[in-house]
Amino acid sequence: MGGTVTLKAVLFDRDGTLVVDVPYNGDPQLVRPMDGALEALQKVRRAGLATGVVTNQSGVARGLLTLEQMHSVNQRVDEVLGPFDVWEVCPHGPRDGCNCRKPAPGMILGACSTLGFMPHEVAVVGDIGADMEAAAAAGARSVLVPTAVTRQEEVEAAAIVAEDLGQAVELLLSGVLKEQGAPV
């Protein structure tokens, strides 16, 4: 397949990517944007791309927060950094066997379906290997933005690594990822 595929949407992991990770956060008052998150999202939106969030929230399955608490935190993220065009949330635990929990591709495929885009027209930005694996399984492009919790082997395995959200967005908008994730 020749030619390039136009990027139409960027899906972001929530905790550790868009907002400071507060484990199993059920309190909207604890939502704090990551440095540069709002500016990065504004650039994506100004470029005419859709934005979305794909987030594992196993605290619900573990009984550490309610669905209502999780939704109130997501609503706060949307108020601070949104509005996002699509939200995909996996409330399941690691052993529930669902197809939505990253590294499975379910949330990315669901977001693509909602937005009306093919996975190869979408990029995923996240802070851990599961985000990158989910993108690869869905056929989407991906950029890893490591944090203190990102393991070295996840950094080494990632196709594209950015030092922060701003650089991740610059890479996406510059077309560096044109071939990554394209159908073969």
UniProtKB/TrEMBL annotation:
SUPFAM superfamilies: HAD-like. It comes from the Bacteria. Keywords: Carbohydrate metabolism, Cytoplasm, Hydrolase, Metal-binding. Its EC number is 3.1.3.-. One of its GO terms (molecular function) is hydrolase activity. Coiled coil: none annotated. It is an enzyme of class 3 (hydrolase). Transmembrane segments: none annotated. The keyword Hydrolase applies. The keyword Metal-binding applies. Signal peptide: none annotated. It is found in: Cytoplasm. Gene3D superfamilies: HAD superfamily/HAD-like. Belongs to the gmhB family. NCBIfam families: HAD-SF-IIIA (TIGR01662), Histidinol-ppas (TIGR01656). This is D,D-heptose 1,7-bisphosphate phosphatase. It comes from Paenarthrobacter nicotinovorans.
